Amino acid sequence: MNVEIYTDGSGTVSGPMGWAFVVVVDGEIKREFSDNSCDGTNNLAELKAVISAFEYATDKGLPAVTIRSDSMYVVDAINQRWILKWARNKWKNARHRPTANREQWETLLRLLLTSQTELVIKHVKGHSGNPYNDRADELAGIKRRDLVTRTVISSTIL
Prior knowledge:
single chain; about 160 residues; alpha/beta; Nucleotidyltransferase, domain 5; 5-stranded mixed sheet; globular
């Protein structure tokens, strides 16, 4: 059984954000998930998507999973072991500044260290016609836009 999870986040510099993942087993979509939050960045949304996907794989007891993300920020942080360097340096980055999204990176590191699920994370080019990545992008965008719409409606009513 080959399990791949495609993730995506949708956000701006700051404001409503959405994230999603699509579980693909042997080439067939088996599960979709999406969520949102009122305040965050696109990088944070991308990170939350990967965390949610890995939590899902861990909760399902999968022995291994390949997560495909179009975020080089997240993929490089794991594959180039930046996350370990940040933790070793008391969550300071290479410029000795606080690591952005520290709480989520700490959550992901705990998962990586405690999960029985082996994680392989790979980059997938966004907006390139990959149907699974495109679906994750669509779901994340819908969740972000839901919050934008609710915010506008609430502001209008008040």
